[in-house]
Input
Amino acid sequence: MKLQMAYSFLHKEIEIVEAELGRVVLSEQEMLSSVSLKLLQSGGKRIRPVFVLLGGRFGEGNQENIHHAAVALELIHMASLVHDDVIDEADKRRGTETVNAVWGNKVAMYTGDYLFARALTVMAEIENPKAHTLLAETILELCRGEIEQMKDKYNYDQGIKSYLRRIKRKTALLIASSCELGAISANASEEVQRILYLYGYYVGMSYQIIDDILDFIATEEQLGKPAGGDLLQGNVTLPVLFAMENKELKKKIMGVNEYTTKSDMANLIESIKETDSIEKSFSISEQYLQRALHVIKPLPNGQAKMALYSIAKYIGKRKK
Amino acid sequence: MKLQMAYSFLHKEIEIVEAELGRVVLSEQEMLSSVSLKLLQSGGKRIRPVFVLLGGRFGEGNQENIHHAAVALELIHMASLVHDDVIDEADKRRGTETVNAVWGNKVAMYTGDYLFARALTVMAEIENPKAHTLLAETILELCRGEIEQMKDKYNYDQGIKSYLRRIKRKTALLIASSCELGAISANASEEVQRILYLYGYYVGMSYQIIDDILDFIATEEQLGKPAGGDLLQGNVTLPVLFAMENKELKKKIMGVNEYTTKSDMANLIESIKETDSIEKSFSISEQYLQRALHVIKPLPNGQAKMALYSIAKYIGKRKK
Output
C-alpha cells in the first residue's frame, strides 16, 4: 500500500497547503527563491502537514488556521534539515544534492534562517497563544536536539537513553506538535489535543528509529544517499548502540572515519546486520508504535482516526 | 554626556531585563551556555531593550509583557549578529573575538539558532497577536537584509537606494519594532504605536549610517576591531558610495581584497576621508535624526519623551 492512500481524502487540503508552500517561499531574491523551490520540489513526504490536517479533523475550527499551521510546520522542518545538513556536512538528501553541497554553508545558513522566518510570519496569522507557545517550545527543543547531535558525534560511550532523548528532540516533538497544532487550530478539546500529541510523539520516535535502521538495511537507491551515512558522519544511532555490545564490532565501529573506504564500510554494515542489533531496534520501534495505536483508541471513530492507524502501521513497515 | 544618563530612570527595569537575559540563555549544554554568556557579557549597548522600555512608558500595560518584549528583542539582535559574523567572516566584534572565530561556523550557526529559538519562547509569553505579527515580519526583513548584504558584497555599482533599503532591513526595522513593541505591550494607543515605530525607524537609519561612518573615522580602539573592516569584507556603505563618485578612488576601492595590506588600507581610508563622503554621509544621517525629533512632538511630555530626544541627539554625536 502506498502511504498516500491512507489519507487520500485529504487531497484537496494537501493541494492547498502545497500551493501555499510554493507561494510563501518565493522571494524577491532570485537565488533564495530558486534554492527554496528546489528544496520544496525535492520531495519529502509532507508528513508533518498531513498530521496537522488530520489533527484538524477532530475539531470544528477555522480551516485557514489549520492550513497555516500545516505550512508553518513544513517550513520549520525544511529549515531544520538545511541547517542539519551543514552540521552533518551531508552532500545528499532525498537523492538530490544538499544546499550546503551546492552553494556552501553560508547560503545554507541563511536559507534556513529565511525559511524559519517565513514560518513565523505564517504562524503569526493564527491568533492562538497556546499554538505560539507550543511552537516556540518545539523549535527550542529542535535546536537542542541539533546541538546534542553535534555534541554526541563520535561519542561511542553514550547510552540508549541519550539516543532516545536526542531523537525525541530532533524528530518526535515536531511530529507531536504537528498533531497537536492541528487539534488546537481546530479548537478540539484539550483531551483530544493531549491524545494527538502523544500519538505524534510515539509515531515520531518509531519513525526516527526506522529511519536509523534503514540507513543500514536499505539500498543506496532507496535512501537517495549512500548506506551507512549516519555512521560515517559520526551519528551514533540505535542499531550502532546495540551492535557495539559486541566488543570486536565496537572497535571496528570506532575506527570509522573520513578515510574509511566504501568497501570497508560495506563489510562493516554487513557485520552489523549479522548481529541482532537490527531486530532489537525494530522491536523498540514496534513498542512505540503499539503505544501510538493504543493511545488513540478513545478518539471518535472516522476517516481521520483510521488514517492515524494506517500511518502508524505503514511506518512500521516502510522501506524508505 | 554618557548615553546611559538619558534613561537613568530605567535602571531598575534594565536590571530586571539583564537578569532575565542571563537566565534564559543558560542551557543544560555547557558549551552553549558559555558561548551565550560570553556574548551577553561582551557588552553591547542594549539599545533595543531600552527602546522597548521607553515605548512601554507610553501606556499602562502589564510590566512583565514589556520586559519579555525587551528580552526577546535583544536575543533576536544577538542571534542576528552571530549569523552576520559568519557571513562576514568577521574575527572581532566589540573588542572580543566572534563566535565563528573561536568555535567555527557550525557552532556559530547553532548558537544563533538557539538564541533565536529562546527569543520565541520568551515572546510566546505575550498574548498579543499584533506583537507576534510585528516580530515575525521584522525577523523576516532582518533575514532579507542579511541576504541582501551577502548578495551586494563587492557590488560597487549599487546605488544609495539599495544601501538604504539594506540598512532599513538590517538595523532600522528592528529598532522601529523595539519602540513599537514596547508601546503595544503597554497597550498604548495606535497613534502612539505608529509614532514610536517611525521614531525608531528614523533613529535606526541614522544609527546605522553613523556606524558605517565610524568604521572609517574611529580608531581601532574605539571600534573594538580594525578600521575599514566593512570595506575589507566587501560591504559597500554610504561613505564608500559617495567616495566612489571620484573615479580614481573608485578604482582603488574596487581593488581592495583579502590581500590588501594594513598600510595600503590605512592610505585608502585617508583618501576616502579627504573627500566629502564623510560629511555627506553625516548630512543624510542628520536628516533622519531631524525626522525622528520631529515625529515625536505629539507624544505626551515626560521623562520618556525627553529620553527619546536625548538618545536621538546622542546618536548624532556618538564616537563609538
Summary: Chain B has one domain: 3-317. The longest strand of chain B covers residues 92-93.
